[in-house]
Protein backbone atom coordinates (compact mmCIF):
# COMPACT_ATOMS: atom_id res chain seq x y z
CA UNK A 1 0.00 0.00 0.00
CA UNK A 2 1.65 3.17 -1.15
CA UNK A 3 1.59 6.41 0.79
CA UNK A 4 2.21 8.21 -2.48
CA UNK A 5 -0.78 7.12 -4.52
CA UNK A 6 0.80 7.99 -7.87
CA UNK A 7 -0.66 8.40 -11.32
CA UNK A 8 -0.13 4.75 -12.21
CA UNK A 9 -1.65 3.23 -9.05
CA UNK A 10 -4.85 4.92 -8.02
CA UNK A 11 -6.26 2.40 -5.54
CA UNK A 12 -10.01 2.04 -5.23
CA UNK A 13 -11.25 2.46 -1.65
CA UNK A 14 -14.73 2.68 -0.14
CA UNK A 15 -16.01 5.10 2.53
CA UNK A 16 -19.22 4.25 4.38
CA UNK A 17 -21.30 7.20 5.51
CA UNK A 18 -19.55 9.35 2.92
CA UNK A 19 -21.98 12.27 3.20
CA UNK A 20 -21.51 12.94 6.93
CA UNK A 21 -19.29 15.51 8.64
CA UNK A 22 -16.25 13.24 9.07
CA UNK A 23 -17.03 10.99 6.09
CA UNK A 24 -17.08 13.96 3.68
CA UNK A 25 -13.64 15.10 4.81
CA UNK A 26 -12.27 11.54 4.55
CA UNK A 27 -13.55 11.41 0.95
CA UNK A 28 -11.99 14.82 0.26
CA UNK A 29 -8.62 13.78 1.74
CA UNK A 30 -8.58 10.58 -0.33
CA UNK A 31 -9.43 12.45 -3.54
CA UNK A 32 -6.67 14.98 -2.84
CA UNK A 33 -4.22 12.08 -2.54
CA UNK A 34 -5.26 10.61 -5.87
CA UNK A 35 -7.38 7.66 -4.78
CA UNK A 36 -10.42 6.41 -6.62
CA UNK A 37 -13.23 6.55 -4.09
CA UNK A 38 -16.58 4.84 -3.79
CA UNK A 39 -18.83 6.42 -1.18
CA UNK A 40 -21.86 4.73 0.32
CA UNK A 41 -25.11 6.46 1.21
CA UNK A 42 -28.63 5.29 1.92
CA UNK A 43 -29.79 7.43 -1.00
CA UNK A 44 -26.96 8.57 -3.29
CA UNK A 45 -29.36 10.79 -5.27
CA UNK A 46 -30.39 12.78 -2.19
CA UNK A 47 -29.43 16.45 -2.52
CA UNK A 48 -27.69 16.28 0.87
CA UNK A 49 -24.89 14.34 -0.90
CA UNK A 50 -24.44 16.93 -3.68
CA UNK A 51 -21.44 18.51 -1.91
CA UNK A 52 -19.44 15.31 -2.47
CA UNK A 53 -19.85 15.49 -6.23
CA UNK A 54 -18.57 19.09 -6.15
CA UNK A 55 -15.24 18.13 -4.52
CA UNK A 56 -12.05 18.53 -6.51
CA UNK A 57 -11.37 15.27 -8.35
CA UNK A 58 -14.87 13.91 -7.70
CA UNK A 59 -15.94 14.03 -11.34
CA UNK A 60 -13.10 11.73 -12.37
CA UNK A 61 -12.61 9.56 -9.29
CA UNK A 62 -15.71 9.48 -7.05
CA UNK A 63 -18.80 7.32 -7.37
CA UNK A 64 -21.66 7.07 -4.89
CA UNK A 65 -23.61 3.88 -4.33
CA UNK A 66 -26.52 2.77 -2.20
CA UNK A 67 -25.66 0.61 0.81
CA UNK A 68 -27.01 -0.15 4.25
CA UNK A 69 -24.78 -1.55 7.00
CA UNK A 70 -27.53 -3.99 7.97
CA UNK A 71 -27.63 -5.37 4.41
CA UNK A 72 -24.45 -7.40 3.84
CA UNK A 73 -25.22 -7.96 0.16
CA UNK A 74 -25.35 -4.20 -0.47
CA UNK A 75 -22.02 -3.83 1.33
CA UNK A 76 -20.40 -6.57 -0.75
CA UNK A 77 -21.52 -4.79 -3.91
CA UNK A 78 -20.09 -1.50 -2.59
CA UNK A 79 -16.76 -3.08 -1.60
CA UNK A 80 -16.23 -5.11 -4.79
CA UNK A 81 -12.76 -4.38 -6.19
CA UNK A 82 -11.75 -2.17 -3.25
CA UNK A 83 -8.28 -2.42 -1.69
CA UNK A 84 -9.50 -0.87 1.55
CA UNK A 85 -12.60 0.24 3.43
CA UNK A 86 -13.13 3.23 5.72
CA UNK A 87 -16.08 2.44 7.98
CA UNK A 88 -17.15 5.91 9.09
CA UNK A 89 -20.95 5.55 9.06
CA UNK A 90 -22.43 5.87 12.53
CA UNK A 91 -25.49 7.65 13.90
CA UNK A 92 -24.96 9.94 16.92
CA UNK A 93 -27.86 9.16 19.21
CA UNK A 94 -28.81 7.61 22.53
CA UNK A 95 -31.41 5.27 21.05
CA UNK A 96 -31.44 1.90 22.90
CA UNK A 97 -31.49 0.19 19.48
CA UNK A 98 -28.14 1.79 18.62
CA UNK A 99 -26.01 -0.87 20.33
CA UNK A 100 -27.30 -3.92 18.41
CA UNK A 101 -27.43 -1.93 15.14
CA UNK A 102 -23.84 -0.65 15.59
CA UNK A 103 -22.57 -4.14 16.43
CA UNK A 104 -24.39 -5.92 13.61
CA UNK A 105 -23.52 -3.21 11.11
CA UNK A 106 -19.84 -3.38 12.03
CA UNK A 107 -19.84 -7.19 11.79
CA UNK A 108 -21.37 -6.92 8.32
CA UNK A 109 -18.84 -4.31 7.17
CA UNK A 110 -15.80 -6.31 8.31
CA UNK A 111 -17.05 -9.56 6.79
CA UNK A 112 -18.19 -7.96 3.53
CA UNK A 113 -14.76 -6.31 3.22
CA UNK A 114 -13.06 -9.67 3.79
CA UNK A 115 -15.44 -11.42 1.37
CA UNK A 116 -14.47 -8.95 -1.37
CA UNK A 117 -10.72 -9.25 -0.77
CA UNK A 118 -10.06 -5.87 0.86
CA UNK A 119 -6.70 -5.80 2.66
CA UNK A 120 -7.36 -3.20 5.32
CA UNK A 121 -10.21 -1.54 7.17
CA UNK A 122 -9.99 1.77 9.04
CA UNK A 123 -12.80 1.94 11.58
CA UNK A 124 -14.10 5.17 13.12
CA UNK A 125 -14.69 4.58 16.81
CA UNK A 126 -15.01 7.35 19.40
CA UNK A 127 -13.31 8.87 22.37
CA UNK A 128 -16.54 7.82 24.10
CA UNK A 129 -15.15 4.28 24.05
CA UNK A 130 -12.06 5.45 25.96
CA UNK A 131 -12.66 8.10 28.60
CA UNK A 132 -15.90 7.20 30.42
CA UNK A 133 -14.38 5.56 33.47
CA UNK A 134 -15.09 7.11 36.89
CA UNK A 135 -12.38 5.00 38.56
CA UNK A 136 -9.58 6.36 36.37
CA UNK A 137 -7.17 8.49 38.40
CA UNK A 138 -7.26 12.24 37.58
CA UNK A 139 -3.48 12.02 37.14
CA UNK A 140 -3.64 9.11 34.68
CA UNK A 141 -2.76 9.76 31.04
CA UNK A 142 -5.62 8.92 28.70
CA UNK A 143 -4.26 6.83 25.83
CA UNK A 144 -5.11 3.88 23.60
CA UNK A 145 -4.88 1.37 26.47
CA UNK A 146 -7.87 3.03 28.21
CA UNK A 147 -11.43 1.79 27.84
CA UNK A 148 -14.69 3.27 29.09
CA UNK A 149 -16.55 1.38 31.82
CA UNK A 150 -19.45 -0.29 29.98
CA UNK A 151 -21.64 -0.72 33.07
CA UNK A 152 -21.08 2.92 34.06
CA UNK A 153 -22.01 4.09 30.53
CA UNK A 154 -25.15 1.96 30.57
CA UNK A 155 -26.11 3.07 34.08
CA UNK A 156 -25.68 6.75 33.17
CA UNK A 157 -27.59 6.36 29.89
CA UNK A 158 -24.55 6.96 27.68
CA UNK A 159 -25.74 4.42 25.14
CA UNK A 160 -23.71 6.00 22.32
CA UNK A 161 -20.54 5.15 24.25
CA UNK A 162 -21.83 1.61 24.84
CA UNK A 163 -22.49 1.22 21.11
CA UNK A 164 -19.04 2.48 20.13
CA UNK A 165 -17.31 0.18 22.63
CA UNK A 166 -19.18 -2.92 21.51
CA UNK A 167 -18.78 -2.06 17.81
CA UNK A 168 -15.04 -1.58 18.26
CA UNK A 169 -14.67 -4.90 20.12
CA UNK A 170 -16.68 -6.58 17.34
CA UNK A 171 -14.52 -4.99 14.61
CA UNK A 172 -11.32 -6.24 16.25
CA UNK A 173 -12.65 -9.79 16.77
CA UNK A 174 -14.08 -10.12 13.25
CA UNK A 175 -10.99 -8.63 11.56
CA UNK A 176 -8.77 -11.02 13.51
CA UNK A 177 -10.94 -13.99 12.54
CA UNK A 178 -10.88 -13.01 8.85
CA UNK A 179 -7.20 -12.01 8.69
CA UNK A 180 -7.97 -8.36 7.88
CA UNK A 181 -5.63 -5.52 8.86
CA UNK A 182 -7.54 -3.14 11.14
CA UNK A 183 -6.74 0.36 12.36
CA UNK A 184 -9.15 2.24 14.63
CA UNK A 185 -9.37 6.05 14.85
CA UNK A 186 -10.99 7.45 18.01
CA UNK A 187 -11.97 11.12 17.51
CA UNK A 188 -13.41 13.32 20.25
CA UNK A 189 -15.64 16.42 19.92
CA UNK A 190 -14.92 17.42 16.34
CA UNK A 191 -14.82 21.04 15.17
CA UNK A 192 -13.86 22.74 11.91
CA UNK A 193 -15.59 23.73 8.67
CA UNK A 194 -18.35 21.56 7.22
CA UNK A 195 -18.41 20.32 3.66
CA UNK A 196 -22.05 19.24 3.97
CA UNK A 197 -24.86 21.78 4.15
CA UNK A 198 -26.68 20.42 7.18
CA UNK A 199 -25.65 21.14 10.77
CA UNK A 200 -24.13 18.26 12.71
CA UNK A 201 -23.94 17.73 16.47
CA UNK A 202 -20.54 19.29 17.17
CA UNK A 203 -20.86 22.35 14.93
CA UNK A 204 -24.33 22.99 16.36
CA UNK A 205 -22.68 22.86 19.81
CA UNK A 206 -20.37 25.76 18.77
CA UNK A 207 -23.27 27.73 17.24
CA UNK A 208 -25.35 27.42 20.42
CA UNK A 209 -22.55 28.78 22.60
CA UNK A 210 -21.82 31.59 20.15
CA UNK A 211 -25.44 32.76 19.98
CA UNK A 212 -26.03 32.30 23.70
CA UNK A 213 -28.88 29.84 23.05
CA UNK A 214 -27.08 27.38 25.32
CA UNK A 215 -27.91 29.20 28.54
CA UNK A 216 -24.99 28.10 30.69
CA UNK A 217 -21.55 26.53 30.60
CA UNK A 218 -21.19 23.24 32.52
CA UNK A 219 -18.34 22.82 35.00
CA UNK A 220 -16.74 20.21 32.77
CA UNK A 221 -13.79 19.63 30.49
CA UNK A 222 -13.97 18.29 26.96
CA UNK A 223 -11.57 17.05 24.30
CA UNK A 224 -11.51 18.69 20.85
CA UNK A 225 -10.00 17.96 17.45
CA UNK A 226 -10.31 19.50 13.98
CA UNK A 227 -12.29 17.45 11.44
CA UNK A 228 -9.51 17.76 8.85
CA UNK A 229 -7.09 16.20 11.34
CA UNK A 230 -9.56 13.35 11.86
CA UNK A 231 -9.70 12.78 8.10
CA UNK A 232 -5.89 12.83 7.80
CA UNK A 233 -5.66 10.42 10.73
CA UNK A 234 -7.86 7.94 8.85
CA UNK A 235 -5.78 8.14 5.68
CA UNK A 236 -2.44 7.93 7.53
CA UNK A 237 -3.70 4.87 9.40
CA UNK A 238 -4.59 3.35 6.03
CA UNK A 239 -1.36 4.23 4.24
CA UNK A 240 1.23 3.33 6.87
CA UNK A 241 1.96 -0.40 6.44
CA UNK A 242 2.65 -0.92 10.13
CA UNK A 243 -0.40 0.95 11.42
CA UNK A 244 -2.53 -1.33 13.59
CA UNK A 245 -4.84 -1.02 16.54
CA UNK A 246 -6.18 2.14 18.18
CA UNK A 247 -5.27 5.77 17.48
CA UNK A 248 -6.60 8.35 19.93
CA UNK A 249 -7.46 11.48 17.94
CA UNK A 250 -7.42 14.41 20.40
CA UNK A 251 -5.92 17.81 19.69
CA UNK A 252 -6.56 19.53 23.02
CA UNK A 253 -8.46 19.17 26.29
CA UNK A 254 -9.83 22.23 28.06
CA UNK A 255 -12.63 23.45 30.31
CA UNK A 256 -15.84 24.42 28.54
CA UNK A 257 -15.45 27.92 30.02
CA UNK A 258 -12.08 28.26 28.24
CA UNK A 259 -13.68 27.18 24.96
CA UNK A 260 -16.36 29.84 25.37
CA UNK A 261 -13.73 32.46 26.30
CA UNK A 262 -11.93 31.62 23.05
CA UNK A 263 -15.13 32.11 21.06
CA UNK A 264 -15.81 35.42 22.82
CA UNK A 265 -12.29 36.61 22.10
CA UNK A 266 -12.54 35.67 18.41
CA UNK A 267 -16.09 36.95 17.91
CA UNK A 268 -16.83 39.65 20.53
CA UNK A 269 -19.77 40.90 18.46
CA UNK A 270 -21.83 37.76 19.26
CA UNK A 271 -23.91 37.18 22.44
CA UNK A 272 -21.67 34.32 23.60
CA UNK A 273 -22.90 32.25 26.58
CA UNK A 274 -21.47 33.74 29.78
CA UNK A 275 -23.19 32.01 32.72
CA UNK A 276 -21.40 29.11 34.41
CA UNK A 277 -23.44 26.37 36.08
CA UNK A 278 -23.12 26.45 39.86
CA UNK A 279 -22.62 22.84 40.91
CA UNK A 280 -20.72 23.54 44.12
CA UNK A 281 -17.69 21.59 42.91
CA UNK A 282 -14.18 22.94 42.30
CA UNK A 283 -13.38 23.95 38.72
CA UNK A 284 -12.90 20.73 36.69
CA UNK A 285 -9.30 20.30 35.58
CA UNK A 286 -8.25 19.15 32.09
CA UNK A 287 -6.93 15.59 32.11
CA UNK A 288 -3.66 14.44 30.58
CA UNK A 289 -3.79 12.60 27.28
CA UNK A 290 -1.44 11.20 24.67
CA UNK A 291 -1.88 11.56 20.90
CA UNK A 292 1.67 10.34 20.30
CA UNK A 293 0.64 7.32 18.21
CA UNK A 294 -0.92 9.61 15.59
CA UNK A 295 1.98 12.05 15.77
CA UNK A 296 4.27 9.09 15.07
CA UNK A 297 2.28 8.48 11.87
CA UNK A 298 3.04 12.08 10.86
CA UNK A 299 -0.11 13.91 11.94
CA UNK A 300 0.21 17.53 13.03
CA UNK A 301 -2.79 18.84 14.96
CA UNK A 302 -4.60 22.08 14.07
CA UNK A 303 -4.77 24.63 16.92
CA UNK A 304 -8.28 24.79 18.39
CA UNK A 305 -8.40 28.59 18.01
CA UNK A 306 -7.91 28.27 14.23
CA UNK A 307 -10.43 25.42 14.06
CA UNK A 308 -13.10 27.38 15.94
CA UNK A 309 -12.51 30.49 13.83
CA UNK A 310 -13.00 28.52 10.62
CA UNK A 311 -16.03 26.68 12.07
CA UNK A 312 -17.81 29.99 12.66
CA UNK A 313 -16.89 31.39 9.23
CA UNK A 314 -18.32 28.24 7.66
CA UNK A 315 -21.52 28.46 9.72
CA UNK A 316 -21.92 32.05 8.51
CA UNK A 317 -21.29 31.13 4.87
CA UNK A 318 -23.84 28.29 4.97
CA UNK A 319 -26.48 30.48 6.59
CA UNK A 320 -26.53 28.77 10.00
CA UNK A 321 -25.36 31.92 11.81
CA UNK A 322 -26.25 35.56 11.23
CA UNK A 323 -23.31 37.65 10.08
CA UNK A 324 -22.74 40.30 12.75
CA UNK A 325 -20.05 42.79 11.78
CA UNK A 326 -17.32 43.19 14.40
CA UNK A 327 -16.30 46.52 15.86
CA UNK A 328 -12.73 45.51 15.04
CA UNK A 329 -11.31 42.45 13.33
CA UNK A 330 -10.55 39.37 15.39
CA UNK A 331 -7.03 38.05 14.86
CA UNK A 332 -5.93 34.44 15.12
UniProtKB/TrEMBL annotation:
It comes from the Eukaryota. It holds the Pfam family Epimerase. Residues 13-242 form the NAD-dependent epimerase/dehydratase domain. One of its GO terms (biological process) is lignin biosynthetic process. InterPro entries: Epimerase_deHydtase (IPR001509), NAD(P)-bd_dom_sf (IPR036291), NAD(P)_dehydrat-like (IPR050425). GO terms for molecular function: oxidoreductase activity, acting on the CH-OH group of donors, NAD or NADP as acceptor. Keywords: Oxidoreductase. This is Cinnamoyl-CoA reductase 1. It comes from Zea mays (Maize).
Amino acid sequence: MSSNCGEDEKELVCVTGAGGFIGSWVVNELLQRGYRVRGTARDPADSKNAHLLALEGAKERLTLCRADVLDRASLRAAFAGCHGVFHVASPVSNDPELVPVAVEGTRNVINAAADEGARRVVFTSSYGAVHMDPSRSPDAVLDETCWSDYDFCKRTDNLYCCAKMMAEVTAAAEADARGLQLAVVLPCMTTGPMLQQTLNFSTNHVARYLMGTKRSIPNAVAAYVDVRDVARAHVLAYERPGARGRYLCIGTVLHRADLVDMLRDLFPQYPVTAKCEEDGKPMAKPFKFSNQRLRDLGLEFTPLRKSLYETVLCLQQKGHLPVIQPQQRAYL
